[in-house]
Design goal:
179 residues; 3 helices; 20% helix; globular; alpha/beta; single chain; UDP N-Acetylglucosamine Acyltransferase, domain 1; 6-stranded mixed sheet; 5-stranded parallel sheet
Length: 179
């Protein structure tokens, strides 16, 4: 009986390492681009497991920012993703700086063009779980984006926005003190 438990533990470890092989390859790809990324030492950004950043564009994260598990960020070579200070991305957030042009797809055009645009997220923001942020979007300071939202247009500072497509449900005109 003890032999069987030991064998199961060994096999479990082997299968676990094999299943994480793709993650290891992904992190090797990330390390290929890391020299072009600007992540402040106090950012503590990569806290979540299975999070990846890839692409040849500019990626910048300011101090105090955080990223949850299973997030994916693609930075096209002609664009940037800029994340401000004290900003938190929850789990399973996706940020892409390029995407197929939907108009070309629905009109059956070939080849389909690609829309490219930088993404900017301000200081002191909270991006909820399962949010998708499209190319060319700018999110101001002190913004909350609700879970499961699709951010396809700019969001002004001091706002709460939710939905797919995104809509602002609360906006404050007063300035909020930064911590």
């Amino acid at each position: 009986m003890q032999f069987r438990k030991t064998l199961n533990r060994i096999l479990s470890g082997v299968f676990s390492r094999l299943s994480s092989l793709t993650d290891n390859l992904r992190y090797q790809k990330y390390s290929f681009y890391i020299d072009s990324y600007d992540i402040e030492p106090k950012a503590n950004f990569f806290k979540g497991s299975d999070t990846y950043v890839y692409g040849e564009g500019k990626f910048s994260v300011k101090q105090g920012s955080y990223c949850g598990a299973r997030c994916g960020i693609y930075v096209d070579q002609n664009s940037a993703v800029l994340i401000g200070a004290n900003t938190a991305l929850s789990h399973n957030v996706r940020i892409y700086t390029s995407n197929r042009n939907a108009d070309d797809v629905i009109h059956g055009m070939t080849p389909v063009t690609v829309k490219v645009g930088s993404v900017s997220i301000g200081d002191n923001c909270w991006i909820g779980a399962n949010v998708f942020i499209c190319e060319g979007v700018s999110i101001g300071d002190n913004v909350v984006v609700g879970a499961n939202s699709v951010v396809s247009k700019d969001i002004q500072s001091n706002s709460i926005a939710v939905g797919a497509p995104i809509r602002v449900i609360k906006a404050s005109v007063r300035k909020v003190n930064k911590w």
